[in-house]
């Protein structure tokens, strides 16, 4: 079974600064998808960014970018120019590429605090 | 974009009663839906996979007789918590697969008194 590890239970960043959230995973598969989800206090899960394992280029969505290191099985999220609205729980997730009918496997999450 | 709704958003029930939570895909058909449970300050834990027209597949440790899942149509899956107890109090989130992507509902907070 695939495991997803987020080693930082809590992180803090000052507004306008940059923060990196770490995620590592364990899998024997060669093709898969990785995701970062944001869960604000409303608890609605929001997709931040996704990465397909067969793509070497790191995914980017505006202020959010990832550093995908396939050999190291590492998938970190960088948030640039942090904003107060970025404060939330962030979950890293894995999904096999074999079939889209498989559920996501989540890490334990990182709580991000943004200070003014 | 694809929208998934859940009803109710909050429910309080007495111990020993049953409660039903609905998950609907509003603008797409979903042959597969998932039910997750999330305790405070914890991650989402998959409870079961719901496939339209067939029996749900439950994760290890989830009691299928306690958490009844019915996926009777391509847009609706229901989770019924039977004989609820205070330890069943949690946040329940459904998600649905549409066009290869997974879309999450807003969740249902269940409190059993």
Descriptive notes:
The complex is a heterodimer of chains A (116) and B (113). In chain A, strands 2, 5, 6, 10, 11 and 12 form a 6-stranded mixed sheet that branches. Chain A has a 4-stranded antiparallel sheet with strand order 3-9-8-7, with no helix packed on it. In chain A, strands 1-4 form a two-stranded antiparallel sheet. In chain A, 0% of the residues lie in helices and 52% in strands. The radius of gyration of chain A is 14 Å and the shape is globular. Chain A is an all-beta fold. Chain A contains no helices and 12 strands. Chain A has strands at residues 3-5, 10-14, 19-21, 24-26, 32-39, 46-52, 60-61, 64-69, 74-79, 88-96, 105-106, 110-115. Chain B has strands spanning 4-7, 10-13, 19-25, 32-38, 44-51, 57-58, 67-73, 76-81, 90-98, 101-104, 108-112. In chain B, strands 2, 4, 5, 6, 9, 10 and 11 form a 7-stranded mixed sheet that branches. The chains are: A mainly beta (116), B mainly beta (113). At the A-B interface, β11 of A face β4, β5, β9 and β10 of B.
The structure class of chain B reads mainly beta
The rough form of chain B would be described as globular
Low-confidence parts of chain A lasting 5 or more residues at pLDDT below 50?
A: none
Mean pLDDT level of chain B: 94
Q: Provide the helix percentage of chain A.
A: under 10%
**What is the straight-line distance between the termini of chain B?**
37 Å
- H/E element string of chain B? EEEEEEEEEEE
> Beta fraction of the residues of chain A?
over 45%
Rounded to an integer, what's the Rg of chain B over CA atoms?
A: 13 Å
If helices are DSSP runs of H or I spanning 4 or more residues, what is the number of helices of chain A?
Answer: 0
| Largest sheet features of chain A | 6 strands, mixed
* Shape descriptor of chain A: globular
Average predicted confidence as pLDDT of chain A: 94
Order of H and E elements of chain A: EEEEEEEEEEEE
Residues in helices of chain B, as a percent range:
under 10%
What portion of residues of chain B belong to β-strands? over 45%
Rg measurement of chain A, Å? 14 Å
* Helix count from the secondary structure assignment of chain B: 0
Distance between the termini of chain A: 41 Å
Biggest protein-protein interface? A-B, 16 and 21 residues
